[in-house]
Task: inverse folding
């Protein structure tokens, strides 16, 4: 760098890099220095200045609403929250034995899981780069443990490939890598890539392909020591006599390539699912519970908002107090942070600009369905050596996920027997009644784990379009709709600002709710200070 | 056209990338609705929210009843709602063919206490897109 100025701080250094080397390099430097390595969470929010005891009414005690309340209270605001449910958390929610859940339409399920076992109908994993929600877990003393996302012993299953036989994740990875390496090595050795590669590159690539793809000395991917070292053995190496390993036979290339099993591998290569992921000890709902305790006394439960008005003096919200026979009450404040999902908010009269109203009305919520299943024993561990992780299938259940906790425990275990999400055949799951959805999860799961039939004990099914407080899983933004309405959804409208995952670019993630809430209250705070 | 969209749990690959339900075995859910008849579409999608008896449901928000619904009298209204969506109701225009939209609208308009004689054709749906 030619600039003689000596940087005095990290910020000065970054400015200097930005000036001399351009923003791309600055960004890289920021990543290296730990500034931008996360979502855009940059540390605890600091709302400084005299807020003169301004009051804020927060609608919704989900993650967004409780983050807003937590920080605004700290900044000196008078805060109150109205919540539809009788508990904090919103979509942050775990079901335990003894719980009941009543969905829209009136069906009530009684959860009969054994003590200590649970199921997360909503969010269930936290990527390491979701530093916002992780920050609040630490601030609220919510213990975290690893969430196993990728397990090489889990299965990839297609009803339309390999006669419906589930393949181990490691076999699919090894065989794709092997055959792709073999084909590429063939192209290189036949000089078909000479225009693209120098001699040195070719030499380097051939060494890499042979090792990476577990090719034999002829650069072919075949049954042998090298390939079995990747995909596993029919009989693994042992000790003493009779210890010689028996290699395994790779899948036929044409069968593998005409399947679509790669999709399950691809998913885990994406940013959201890269290691390390976490889960709260005892269920995702622990975060909501901890927030609720931290905000003890500020949250009024069982309140259904029925109208939102504002003028230049403040905000007035009417609500039905469901614990008091649906008596209509009002709450007032100087400002309002509104985290009610757009799917519900579009049905509530609200005095806002047509731009915000149109934005809210434009957003429907995507489908999602989850089933929790308790079995008499952890057969996936005992019989199949699967400890956590996810099995993928092209059946409507889409996922089976094994618990990332309680390994090797004897007795019952609960696994996620279905997680259908966001697609047309998710409606095929959601449209089933809860008992039928559990049965579908059992029938489809038994194609992968025959033990289902003899080991099943209890099930719980949640179709997110029938969840009374959200009417769907999460905001289903299309690119066009987002371009048209997203900024209006997030903009402060008079004395009201919206927040939640639907006001973020991390749809359906709790991190989206956190980041949205922090952004909303920072802007609101500036508005308050300048008012 | 949608590009790749990242949601929690799954990447939704839409018709842009050729995942709209071709002959390929697919691990990923399709972007097109597989059901064809009105009854199958109702049972496979609509009853999720509007309920098997089409009487709707109430929570923090409401799913309106389709049973005995006078708003269905003008067929263009349900056609438009199915294609374009309305508030919490998702749009199904991209997921359903003209025939599928006509089939589901005709089914609902002749069941659940509705008895509207004029049926919707795929051409009517095409014109409403």
Result:
């Amino acid at each position: 760098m030619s600039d003689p100025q000596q940087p005095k701080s990290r910020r000065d250094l970054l400015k200097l890099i930005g000036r001399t080397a351009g923003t791309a390099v600055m960004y890289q430097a920021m990543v290296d220095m730990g500034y931008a390595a996360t979502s855009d969470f940059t540390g605890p929010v600091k709302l400084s200045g005299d807020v003169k005891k301004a009051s804020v009414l927060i609608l919704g005690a989900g993650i967004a609403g409780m983050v807003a309340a937590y920080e605004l209270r700290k900044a000196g605001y008078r805060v109150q929250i109205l919540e539809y449910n009788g508990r904090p958390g919103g979509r942050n929610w775990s079901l335990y034995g003894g719980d009941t859940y009543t969905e829209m339409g009136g069906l009530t399920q009684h959860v009969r899981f054994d003590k200590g076992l649970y199921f997360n109908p909503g969010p269930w994993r936290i990527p390491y780069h979701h530093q916002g929600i992780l920050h609040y877990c630490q601030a609220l003393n919510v213990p975290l443990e690893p969430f196993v996302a990728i397990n090489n012993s889990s299965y990839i299953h297609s009803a339309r490939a390999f006669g419906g036989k589930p393949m181990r994740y490691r076999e699919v990875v090894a065989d794709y890598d092997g055959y792709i390496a073999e084909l590429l090595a063939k192209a290189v050795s036949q000089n078909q890539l000479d225009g693209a590669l120098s001699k040195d590159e070719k030499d380097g690539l051939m060494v890499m392909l042979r090792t990476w793809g577990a090719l034999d000395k002829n650069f072919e991917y075949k049954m042998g020591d090298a390939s079995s070292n990747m995909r596993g053995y029919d009989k693994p190496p042992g000790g003493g006599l009779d210890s010689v390993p028996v290699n395994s036979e790779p899948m036929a290339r044409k069968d593998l390539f005409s399947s679509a099993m790669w999709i399950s591998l691809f998913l885990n290569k994406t940013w959201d699912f890269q290691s390390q992921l976490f889960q709260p000890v005892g269920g995702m709902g622990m975060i909501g519970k901890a927030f609720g305790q931290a905000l003890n006394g500020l949250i009024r439960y069982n309140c259904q908002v029925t109208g939102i008005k504002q003028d230049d003096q403040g905000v007035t919200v009417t609500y039905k107090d469901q614990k008091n026979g649906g008596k209509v009450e009002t709450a007032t404040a100087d400002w309002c942070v509104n985290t009610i999902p757009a799917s519900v908010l579009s049905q509530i009269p609200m005095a806002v600009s047509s731009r915000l109203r149109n934005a809210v009305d434009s957003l429907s919520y995507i489908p999602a369905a989850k089933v929790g299943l308790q079995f008499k024993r952890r057969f996936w561990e005992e019989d199949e050596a699967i400890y956590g992780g996810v099995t993928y299938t092209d059946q409507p259940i889409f996922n089976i996920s094994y618990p990332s906790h309680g390994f090797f425990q004897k007795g019952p275990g609960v696994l996620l027997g279905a997680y259908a999400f966001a697609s047309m055949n998710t409606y095929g799951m959601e449209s089933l009644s809860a008992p039928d959805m559990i049965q579908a999860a059992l029938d489809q799961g038994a194609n992968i784990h025959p033990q289902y039939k003899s080991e099943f004990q209890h099930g719980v099914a949640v179709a997110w379009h029938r969840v009374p407080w959200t009417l769907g899983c999460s905001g289903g933004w299309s690119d066009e709709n987002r371009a048209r309405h997203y900024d209006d959804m997030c903009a402060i409208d008079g004395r009201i600002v919206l927040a939640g995952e639907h006001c973020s670019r991390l749809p359906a993630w709790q991190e989206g709710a956190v980041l949205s809430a922090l952004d909303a209250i920072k802007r609101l705070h500036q508005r308050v200070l300048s008012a | 056209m949608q590009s790749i969209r990242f949601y929690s749990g799954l990447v939704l690959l839409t018709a842009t990338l050729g995942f709209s339900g071709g002959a390929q075995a697919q691990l990923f859910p399709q972007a097109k609705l597989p059901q064809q008849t009105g009854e199958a579409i109702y049972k496979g999608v609509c009853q999720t929210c509007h309920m098997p008896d089409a009487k709707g449901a109430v929570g923090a928000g409401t799913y309106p009843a389709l049973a005995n619904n006078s708003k269905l009298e003008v067929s263009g209204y349900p056609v438009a709602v199915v294609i374009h969506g309305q508030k919490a109701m998702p749009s199904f225009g991209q997921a359903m063919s003209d025939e599928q939209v006509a089939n589901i609208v005709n089914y609902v308009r002749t069941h659940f206490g509705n008895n509207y004689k004029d049926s919707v054709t795929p051409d009517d749906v095409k014109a409403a897109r």
User: Anything to note?
Assistant: The first helix of chain B runs from residue 38 to 50. The CA atoms of residues 41 and 120 of chain B lie 16 Å apart. The helical segments of chain B are 38-50, 76-84, 98-109, 122-128.
